[in-house]
Each structure stands twice: as structure tokens, then as C-alpha cells.
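Sequence, C-alpha cells quoted for completeness.
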Amino acid sequence: MPRLRPLLESVHIFTLAIWGGSLAFTAVTAAVAFPTMRKLDPRLPEFAAYEGEHWRIAAGHIANRLFLINDMVQLAGVLVTLLTFGLLLLTTKRAAAGVLWPYVLRAVLLSAASILVAYQLFILAPRMQTNLQAFWDAARAGDAARAEALRSAFEVDHPTASNVLVATGVCVLLSLLTAAWSAAASPTTPAGELESPALLRKR
């Protein structure tokens, strides 16, 4: 089992990097899409009956797909990082005591990130997705009053969604840094054992 540690650490760190990269890419792309669409001020034939701001709808369609993809990446990230971290814990029972505390910190950070993702996936995202789709349907039908009410309901959750995204990103980044440090600091030989001489290993 100890021989699997380098592989487990590599998969764990790589997954954290992909997870964090997905969060950063999604946030940056959304931040660029909305101002760009607002400046272009497009008119969408599909929503011709809607007299409101079409740029919000255009940018919203782009951002919505990005966030759906990001949600899938986050779910995979949670599953893989928790699995690999659990397996890593099984190989640290005989590790030097001085390197045990990073695993406690890693456990706290991964737990926090997992809770945030669970809240995003199972509470926040479904409600926002329902309001968003209903807003688009009302706008497509030209029902301005209903569309505005649904857009307002969606906007109520937007600050919370942004805070969850940032908090998750911070947890993932700190997890990545701590995992990299922990992997570098972990002993290659279990504590209390001496490494076999090279000549003996060749026989």
C-alpha cells in the first residue's frame, strides 16, 4: 500500500488542480461575457416579443452552460479527492508524527469544499435553474411582468452563488497547496524502519 502513495498523491493533486481551474475559468468567463454582451446590446429573434434587455439573456445562456459543466467537474472533483484522500490516510498510520497535522488541515479544507459543493448542487443550483428557465420562457412569450418577477427571484440568489463559488475556490486552492506541501514532506520510508541497502535491493 505505501508504494501507491505517489500515485494517489499525484491523482489527488491533479484533480484539485482541474477542479480549481474549472472554478477560475467559469468565474472569469462569466465576468467577461456579461459586460461584452451588454456593450454589444444584441436583439434575439427567439425573444422578439420581450422588450427587456436581450443582452442579459444572451450572456445568461453562455454562463448557464459554463456553470452546468463546472457543476459536473466539481462533483467529479469531490468524489475523486475524497476517495484518494481516504486511501492516503490508510497509508499514513506509521508516518512521522511531524507530518500528520497537514492531513488534519487537508481533511478540514476538503470537508468545507465538499459541503459548499453539495449546497451548490442540491440546493442553490436547482432553485436558480428553475427560476432562470422560467424567466426565459416568460420572456420568450412576451410576458414582461412575469419575466421581471422571475429575474428578480433569480437575482436574489446570485450574491450567495458568487460567495459560494469564491469560498469553494479558496478551499480548493488551499487544499492544493497543502497537498503539494504534504506530499513533499511525507517520508518515503515508514517511521522506525531503515531503508534497505542498495546492494541488497539489487539481489
Notes: Residues 144-185 form the longest helix (42 residues). Residues 43 and 68 are 25 Å apart (CA to CA). Helices lie at 5-40, 54-90, 101-141, 144-185, 198-202.
